[in-house]
Amino acid sequence: GLWSQRRLRGSVLVTGTNRGIGLELVRHFAKERRAGQDIKIISCSRTISPELEELLEDVYHFELEVTRPADVASVAGVAANILEDRGLNVLINSAGILRMGQGVTGCSHEELKEVLDTNLIGVHSMTSAFHPLLKQGAPSAGVFNISAEIGSISGTNIANKTAYRISKAALNMLTKITAAEFRRDKIMALAIHPGWVQTDLGGPKAPLTPEQCVQDLVECIENCGRKDSGKFVKKGLVEIPY
Q: How would you classify the pairing of strands 60-63 and 90-93?
């Protein structure tokens, strides 16, 4: 839609930027900035990797654990100063963890709690804390949650990666609720399946490079319109059944 044209020209915040998709997103936006794009990039991750360190002169970086609400709130406070009155256009919740416990009996209480804490509750904290800044960035503002096709309930008939699957199914519901609440503020929300990507999480057998994945993600972010808000999609804004 026409409101997407400004979306990636203003400001973007990405979580989970020390590795994988989050790192590649920051690399992409940093390249745009060096090419003259007027874009403020905020990067958040638990630790700084050597790869992320190379990009620091183009971004505002915060060491942030999304599972700590007080830390999230303080980063939102500093971000308000960085963004001044322009607000935030794009929030990409990319921080995520994978644990391999199988089924019900093979997935421990601790594992389920740990995965939900980052993949679901951390996204809730970020979305809630940055809502005022997204409101300022509207109408070209959106929350983009990195989900996974294996979080599709209708698509599930095997009992592996239990905590991860549950966290992504719940994340899709959170995305839907975000879309419903934030509609009045002209902020959209989208859950995006990034594909199977060659990252620590995806492993070396994955068909997609991080660069290809980010190309597809950025296309989704640039091309989606208000009619897409609340959807669960993959490359080309193709819908995935919840």
A: unpaired
Amino acid at 3: W
CA-CA distance, 19 to 111, in Å (whole number)?
21
State the angle between helix axes of 210-223 and 20-34 in degrees (0 to 180), rounded to the nearest 10: 70
Q: Check: pTM over 0.90? Answer yes or no.
A: yes
**Measured on CA atoms in the order 24, 30, 35, 38, is the torsion positive or negative?**
positive
Half-sphere exposure of residue 234: CA atoms within 13 angstroms, side-chain side: 13
Q: Are strands 60-63 and 238-239 parallel, antiparallel or unpaired?
A: unpaired
Per-residue pLDDT tens over the stretch 158-186: 999 999 999 999 999 999 999 999 999 99
Cis, bond preceding 139 (omega within 30 deg of 0):
yes
Q: For residue range 94-138, what is the model confidence (pLDDT) as tens digits?
A: 999 999 999 999 999 999 999 999 999 999 999 999 999 999 999
Q: How confident is the model at residue 2 (pLDDT cuts 50, 70, 90)?
A: very low
Spatial neighbors of 99 by CB under 8 A, at least 6 apart, are 107, 111, 114, 115, 161, 163, 164
Least confident of 4-8, 143-147, 163-167: 4-8
Q: Cα separation of 108 and 102, whole Å? A: 9
Provide DSSP, 202-224: T-TT-SB-HHHHHHHHHHHHHH-
Helix (H, G, I), strand (E, B) or coil at 185: helix
Q: How many CA atoms lie within 13 A of 59 on its CB side?
A: 29
